[in-house]
Amino acid sequence: MSEITKQYESDIREYARDSDPEVAKAGRMGKSLLWKTSGKSSRDSLISSIYRAVKRLADAVEYGGTVNIPKAKEELEAEISRAS
Known about the structure:
The protein has 84 residues and is mainly alpha-helical.
């Protein structure tokens, strides 16, 4: 696992502990998906995708936008299931 992947995992866990409940919800969604990446040869890429999705949701909350966590989770689960 690369250093950047380790940092992404750490950042996802930090988002899960954020004081803003919506950001924390996005982080928990990402954290719940991390375990599904174990054993995948494309794990680094999948964790990067999870991180980008969580960051995008957190940024949307920060700027007053709306977030659709169920849709993001569905898309990420589909990506994970397609991965080898």
